[in-house]
Every structure is written in C-alpha cells, then in structure tokens.
Amino acid sequence: MTDSKASVRAYALLAGAQLAVGAAAIFARWALTGAGPLSVSALRLTIAAAAVWALAAMRRKATHVSPEFRTRLAIAGVALAAHFGTWIASLQYTTVAISTLLVSTTPLWTAMYDAVVRKRPMRARVWPAYALAGLGLLMVVGIGGSAPPIPGHALLGAALAIAGSISIGAYFEIVRSMRADVSTRDVVQQTYGWAAIVLIVAAVVARQAPPPLEDGTAWAGIVAMALVSQLLGHTAMNASLRRFSPTAVAMTTLLEPVVAALLALAIFGERLLPLALLGGVVLLAAVAAVLREEAR
C-alpha cells in the first residue's frame, strides 16, 4: 500500500470514529424513549463488555493484571459508570448539542487536575482560556437559552453533562497513570465489566427496567450505542493513535459536538439560539487552546 493510500485510510478511519462517537447522543435519545438513563447505560456497557470478553475468549487471551492494578481499574470502571449514567441522563433535560458540547470539556478538568493535584506548572497564558470557557458556558447555559426536552430543566441537564465530563476525566487520569503497565485490552475488559456491574446495580436500585422487547426503537438505540459508538468508534479512535499524535486525535474530538448538533437538527429538529451557538464556538475554542498548550 502506498503512503498516499495509507494516509487516506488513516483520515477515513479517524473521520469514521468521530462520526460514530458523535452519533452516540442520537442513539441515546432513541434509547431513552423506552427506558431510564441508568437502564440504558447499563445495557450499553453490558453489551459492550460482553462483546469484548467474548472476543478475548475466542482469541484465548487471558488477562495478566496484578491485584493492585485490578483495584485501580475497578475504580476507573466506577468513574466510567458515572460518566455514562450522568451524561445519558442529561439528554432528558437539555438538547443533544448542549449535552455533547458540555461533556466534551474534559480537557479543561484534566488540565486543572494536573495543575492542582499533580503540581504540574500551568503557563499564565492558559488562564485566559479558562476565562473564555466560563464566558462560553454562560452564553450556552445561562443567557443563551435552548429548547430542552423538558422546559425549565436546562440547568439540570447542563449540570449532569458537566458531571459526565468530570467523571470521564477521572477515568482518563486513572488509566493514564498505569498505561505503561496494563495493556489497552485489559483496561477495556476490566473497566467495561466493572462499569456494567455498577450500572446494573444502580438501575435495579432505581427500579429502572430495560425497555420492552417489542420496543424496536429503544433497543436499536442501545445496541447502536454499544456496537457502533462504543466498540467501533472508540476502537477506531485508539487505532488512529498509530498514525496521528494523541493531541491531533484529541483535537478531532472537538468535532463530536458539531456532528451531534447537525444530526440532532436533521433528525429531531433541535435548534440552538444564535447566542448559544456563539457560546458553543467560544467554549470549543477555549478547550482547543488548553489542548494546544498541553501539547506544548
């Protein structure tokens, strides 16, 4: 294969990954028509975990994770469960565009964690990016307005989406701390499994039952989230790291809110007011600035 063909395939793989992940909110909105957010999240992770473990069994590859790392991966699984539980719940109270936008602010939280907890110096020019992010957030949620599924609950939806962003940031921090000692396959197997268990328990406690078997729309959304967004999308994104730098891949994830917003507009007719749209651009610019500084 020539370098040009390899480059085309690499870009196509990365673009496909962003499309698959960006469509997750659309699939979730369909899934929520038949079940609660904890039930939907539990089914998504259970199907994904079952597929990963089945593939490992077919390849006869046993895990080799020390007890210490198993504990840390279990904690990461809890963080992953919190991410999906809160983010999917946010879609009940705010628009797809705003929910996906806010959950994409993870780099802001991980950079802050590195500065405060890891004592990693943060350059002075990063702080204006946080001020810009605050302005964008105010424009999107505070004064920009939107047309959420349940009027009057936009702030609750925004809070849940931000909680999802922070919890996935915690997941990334835990996994990053042991990436040199644990394979990606073991990380996925362990964290998906623990996340599924936590969400199943949470759904049972909350009395959120799975959708009826005859509810084709809800089940299609759940299966699509598990197989398309979770397995194909995230796997393709990881595969893209062989060709692109982590920063480049992270930058492309800023396209996810754009993809989700366009799909929501086409499928559900969800629109953002001009001020909220401008605020989204400002917020994404702030995240991009933080990512760029992290690369430096």
Task: Write structural notes for this entry.
This protein is mainly α and 296 residues long. The chain has one domain. It has helices spanning 3-22, 24-31, 37-58, 67-90, 96-103, 106-116, 127-142, 154-176, 184-205, 216-240, 246-252, 255-268, 274-295. 46% of the residues are buried.
Topology overview:
Elements: H1 3-22, H2 24-31, H3 37-58, H4 67-90, H5 96-103, H6 106-116, H7 127-142, H8 154-176, H9 184-205, H10 216-240, H11 246-252, H12 255-268, H13 274-295
Helix pairs in contact: 1-10, 1-12, 2-10, 3-4, 3-9, 3-10, 4-8, 4-9, 5-8, 5-12, 6-8, 6-13, 7-13
**Continuous helix count:** 13
Share of β-strand residues: under 5%
Any low-confidence stretches, pLDDT <50, length ≥5? none
Radius of gyration, whole Å: 19 Å
Give the oligomeric state of the chains in this entry, treating copies of one chain as homo and distinct chains as hetero: single chain
N-end to C-end Cα span:
33 Å
Structural class: mainly alpha
List SSEs in N-to-C order.
HHHHHHHHHHHHH
Largest sheet: none
> So what's the overall shape?
globular
Task: Give the strand tally.
Answer: 0
Quickly count the domains: 1
Considering DSSP H and I runs of 4 or more, what fraction of the residues is helical? over 70%
Kindly state the mean pLDDT as a whole number?
A: 86
Précis, in short:
The protein is mostly helical and 296 residues long.
